[in-house]
Task: inverse folding
């Protein structure tokens, strides 16, 4: 691999100068962080991926190793490099809560690796949910939990938050729905005398977005939190709490009132962190939470997203 010193680099100019005109930028790369950790990845264009990494990781990147590899051999070579690093007891960031698993993943059959890379790089392609919305026509909407949620006086606000998150964070949500991610209505977990969950999005088996309801002095407030993997850069103005889940380890939780979460996922740093988290979880495999997926709530979310697409 070619070693490139990237200490203090905040643009692509110094890195791109290393590559001669016409040199392949498709291959395997290794990021070296100031704290001694490394990250192994693949990219069709390593410069684009490096720019995203510089923006996304909170830890300084001091060096970049790169080796050109043909597209058809990326998965195999990536897996070999990771296995080599593991044998050498290298501390890899890939093994964090949602570190991108190596090699083939079931979700690759639905969303190709190039499409996943584009999603991580901030691409926001036009989405057409017409077929998914048509599937919602005539569906039974009588479930108790959904009926309770739909009757909530702030249901439109709740729907806006959920639609913004799923549209901005989860790639091809209509193709991965229920099998890889799900949305639940009025989940009973974590309920206290003053707070309860109203809705939650789970990717793989990790709760990534929660909208809750706080009761205080006779008044009701909508709030919530967004979970992303540790070590990812977030705006300093946000209320970020580091917490731990017994089953998945450490996470960063962004806490705010519910309406603000709708706007937060449009911020590049929050969006990038949330997308990195979602892609990693999708690549971990299918969800065991599919039985809790609230289909009529998902119907309303897709209808809301389709409406916004038409007016964008």
Result:
């Amino acid at each position: 691999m070619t070693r490139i010193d990237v200490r203090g680099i905040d643009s692509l100019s110094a890195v791109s100068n290393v590559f001669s005109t016409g040199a392949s930028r498709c291959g395997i790369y290794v990021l070296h962080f100031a704290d001694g950790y490394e990250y192994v990845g693949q990219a069709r264009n390593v410069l684009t991926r490096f720019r995203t990494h510089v923006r996304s990781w909170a830890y300084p990147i001091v060096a970049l190793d790169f080796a050109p590899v043909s597209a058809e051999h990326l998965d195999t070579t990536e897996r070999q490099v990771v296995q080599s690093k593991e044998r050498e007891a290298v501390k890899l960031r890939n093994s964090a809560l949602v570190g991108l698993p190596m090699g083939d993943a079931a979700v690759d059959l639905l969303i190709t690796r190039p499409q996943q890379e584009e999603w991580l790089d901030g691409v926001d392609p036009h989405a057409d949910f017409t077929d998914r919305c048509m599937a919602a026509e005539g569906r039974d909407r009588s479930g108790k939990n959904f009926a309770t949620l739909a009757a909530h006086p702030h249901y439109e606000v709740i729907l806006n938050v959920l639609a913004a998150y799923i549209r901005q964070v989860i790639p091809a949500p209509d193709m991965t729905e229920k099998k890889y991610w799900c949305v639940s209505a009025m989940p009973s977990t974590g309920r206290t005398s003053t707070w309860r969950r109203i809705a939650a999005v789970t990717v793989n088996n990790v709760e990534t977005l929660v909208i809750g309801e706080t009761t205080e002095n006779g008044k009701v407030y909508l709030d919530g939190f967004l979970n992303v993997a540790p070590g990812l850069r977030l705006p300093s103005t946000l209320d970020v709490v580091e917490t731990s889940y017994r089953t998945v380890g450490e996470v960063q939780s962004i806490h705010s009132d519910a309406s603000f979460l709708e706007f937060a996922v449009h911020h590049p740093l929050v969006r990038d962190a949330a997308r990195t988290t979602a892609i990693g979880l999708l690549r971990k495999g299918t969800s065991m939470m599919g039985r809790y997926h609230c289909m009529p709530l998902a119907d309303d979310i897709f209808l809301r997203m389709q409406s916004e697409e038409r007016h964008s």
